[in-house]
Amino acid sequence: MTLLPNDGLEQDFARFISEVTDLRDKAIEESAKPRIVPSRYDRGHGGTIQPSPLNEPFERLRLRLLNFVGSLSFGQHDEMIREIQSMFSPPDVSTLDKLLGTLRALKEDSVAGRVQLISDLARSSSDTTTLTIFVSSKMKEFAEERQALYALVPKLLQGVVTLHAWVFERDTRASEVPSREIWLEKLETSILYIGLFGTSYGEWTIDEFNKAKHIGLPKLIFIKDVPPEQREQRLADFITQMSDVNSGLTPQYFSTIQDLERHVTDAIKTWIEERLSITSRHKLLEILKKSKEDYYAWFDRNQHLPDEQKNKIEHTSLIRKAVRACENAEDALDDGGKACLSINADSVNWDSCYSKNKNNLTYIAKKRLTPYFVTGHSPSEGPPDKAGAEKMGGYYQRNLDALDDAIDRLKELQ
User: Fold this and answer.
1) Phi-psi group of 64: left, alpha or beta (phi > 0 → left; psi -120 to 50 → alpha; rest → beta)
2) Is the same domain home to 77 and 187?
């Protein structure tokens, strides 16, 4: 079941991010003003430090943030609470930048991180769009088969996509529009063409096939298995040309309506699932590219800071997002690759495991991407130990290398 983002939660994050951004702008203005002003009690010996006008609004915001984050039940909220507690007035620009990064990272983990990409893609299709599959054949010869497909297709992949088999005699009403114009127009708006061929050559069936071919509509062809002498020669010649082993389509032969239903079910499911996979992997590729850009930006903001001052929450969220993308790609490992998931960097088998599986997205998610710094903080997420760091480099370079390989792998799978 897909967990959708909570609108109220998104609004809360948006409000806090807006408030911190406003404070940051004011902090920039305040940094340009003198902080020491003359005092009548100093008699020329100096001045007093003027309290920052940001102290009070920052403290109010800080208390509200602590209450808000403390109410959450996900992500790294405990670590964020400690981070907010360590911030003191007056807030400078770097403190507020860090707070903004943390808020955005926590929002990503709590809202966007709940959405399962592939199931949401499918859910949006089933909720908003009916996908039409055009059924083409001689109407009288395949009357029963056409009615069977009309009933069958809407039952396929329910909950994933909504499908409709367009059958001329079931979907067309009396009209002044010529019949050929109606079916050619429907072909333009269909996602898939199903062609049934048997014993008789049908001029309009071939017309529909040629139109589908002309507009680049994907085609699934099913041929009734009959003795050669029963098939009209013109149709036999057409089938031979259409199914040329080097440049043609690969048809599926059937004997009964039950055969046809089984073959059509398998073919449509495979075709739809492949298209959903291609679409989702394209989205995952975009996520990984964005993750790499965001990781570069994080490094630019944090590279000059000692490790204890780096924004670890934002770092963790960025890499976790990439981990989720790699896992959702469902890049299968063989049995040897699965065994390698339990091999750590200090093992004698690490090098061979790494070289064989380093470009597999599941391996990248489980063993290469490292949300935490290399401190042994979390043995379950990436190689956390010094042996892993020595073999693969520090956390920043090893994550960049893993992101590069993940992006290349997803491009291969498109």
Assistant:
1) alpha
2) no
Between strands 252-254 and 162-166, the pairing is unpaired
- pLDDT band at residue 152 under the 50/70/90 scheme: very high
Distance in angstroms (rounded) separating the CA atoms of residues 320 and 324: 6
Q: How many residues does the chain have?
A: 414
For the full predicted model, state whether its pTM sits above 0.70. Answer: no
Q: Please, where are the H alpha helices in 172-256?
A: 179-188, 203-214, 233-242
Nearest to 194 by CA among 232, 164, 237, 162: 164
Distance CA 394, CA 389 (A): 5
pLDDT for 120: 37
Range of the structural domain that residue 193 is part of:
119-255
Query: Strand, coil or helix: what is 253?
Result: strand
Residues 108 and 11 placed together within one structural domain of the fold: yes
Q: Which residues pair with 165 in a beta bridge?
A: 133
Rounded Cα–Cα distance for residues 403 and 408 (Å): 9
pLDDT at 9: 59
